[in-house]
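Lecture notes, unit on protein representations.

Consider one protein chain, 326 amino acids long.
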Amino acid sequence: MSSATDFEISTAASASFDERARLILQSSAMVLLVNALIGVLLVAALWSRLPPPLLLHWLLGLAVITAARALLLALYRRRRPPANRLSLWLAIHGVGSTVSALWWGTIIYRFEQPDMVAAIMLAFALGGLALGGLAAMGTMLRIYVPFLLATIGPITLHFLILRAEPGMSGLGAMLVAFIIALTVLAAMQRRVLIRTFALASSLVAAKSRAEEDSRAKSEFLAYISHEIRTPMNGVLGMTEILLESALDQDQRHLANTILRSGKSLLAVINDVLDISKIEAGKLSLEQRAFDPAQAVAGQIDLFGELAHRKNLEVRVDVAPDVPRRV
């Protein structure tokens, strides 16, 4: 059971690649906008704690990278590449995301030993950026993991190795745990999405099979009903001709019973055809007046001859107050 499930997940992963790739590429515009906004806010927050020229230089580099990625995104939307070209565009997007992440991740190396408050602010900004990338790219690990490592990896190494102080080492350890947690979450998110895609695909396939089975059943009923109705019409026609000939009272009674039985059977066949109408939502109810006494008498006639052969008598009494038409 487990191997079959793994096979289904593997198949769904391949089948859902196009959808996941398009989702990542289509959400890139919002990612770029948030990326630029966070950069501006970070520079404003660090303006009084770090050298402004270096901050402006870093912000200018971020603007250039973001503009280049925006141009590539516009080119992608203009060309609307087919499915067999999505891998190339996804790879280009991954390179752009990793380059941008490296520009973010190495920001701490541009300053001479920033104070604890500035370092924590940078760590929070990079952590938020990595967390936002999880929502945008988490379903594609080949894109998200390099982005994650490029974003938080450099500052983590800085805290663990270059500034091995008690407070900084603890912050570095927290960032390592954060990287591991985001990687696990990305893998879980990818698996859930693939399972959802597999379930949706199986439901669509099951729906198609059910519709095909229903169509085959309707065709079978229509064919069988037609094949039965053709000879039945012949029986009814011959019985009506028989009734027009010279018959004694018993023969005429039996012929009338055959005619009524045949018409009843023909009505049952028509009811069978109504099953297909019910499934198609095209069934219409028909209201007709009938004589209850005559309807009961007709049913009695169907079994009267069989009862007579067994020395039984079947009779029915209709009360006088029973209406003649209902």
